[in-house]
Amino acid sequence: MDPAAEEARHLGLRFQRGFLAGRRLRAFPWAELEKKLKSSSDALLLLDILQKTILHPLCMKYPPSVKYRRCFISELIRKHESIATEPLDELYDVLAEILNKEESTNCYKSYLLPTGDSVTLSETVAIISQGTTGLVTWDAALYLAEWAIENSAIFSNRTILELGSGIGLTGIAICKTCNPKAYVFSDYHHCVLEQLSENIHLNGFVLESETGNHTKMQSQNQRTEVMDLQGPKITVAELDWDSVTKEQLTELQVDVVIAADVVYDPQITLSLIGVLQQLSTSKTTGNPPEIYIAFTVRNPDTYHLFQTELGKVGIGWQVVPTHTKNLFLYDLHSDIILLKLLAQTL
Fold first, then answer.
1. Is 276 within 8 Å of 286 (Cβ atoms)?
2. Whole-model pTM?
């Protein structure tokens, strides 16, 4: 493939990753697209981007919001109109179809995995909805998922507990790529738990409580999806950090504990410390669980409070080096930190 064609292909894939994941439109490489269009006057690049985004099979089945698609196709049309070529009917046909659709309160985002699979999530269109921030995916969850995929041996054939799972991006990515033995998603807000369960189903998994019914369905129709029967044992738990008991945590017998973007409020931080303290001594056999916490440092005082409170209960910590591969799109300028807690110092 000649350099110009390879550059165009790479540009199309950047648009694809950003569009399927619902990234902000201003983050797309529009200037690069406009420059390439003006230098080559090749409208086929626009058709390639259209096929990789709005007309992609994932988008057709699990579409982003109507507003998002409308703004995206409108920008593509503006870029096309900036070059002196014949109109592309395909662009206007797609715009007309989108203009006839009604907006929904929910939308879908899809994240492409290195295996060729993807994680598709149903999200609310509002960052804060129904009194919780847990109905959208935050950058630290994407960061933690990337790190987990690159360090899959930590999760392979082990029991994982995720605190504050939100709508499931990190956990579903781990279940699809890291071969855990069992995975416990947990959160507290009932709306988040409902959305989380829906997303687990959306990605072809069945919860442990449903496997009996699924087996019956399997015997009736041999073509039924069986990913969950071959994959990890998956459960969703309602976990209130202020009231959960050590006995309840001990029953889980987890090998690894993870959490993303749960360090953002002083009061919640103190509750989190209490759970981590209990988890660090919850294993009855073998080594204590490995604990990894990823978060975006929005307020240095909150981060320092977290470190201080860890020290008060005897939990050590170390910063985990940044992984090498950027699989997902998020704000690379964000100050995202991954800590490994040192349970052996307890």
1. no
2. 0.88
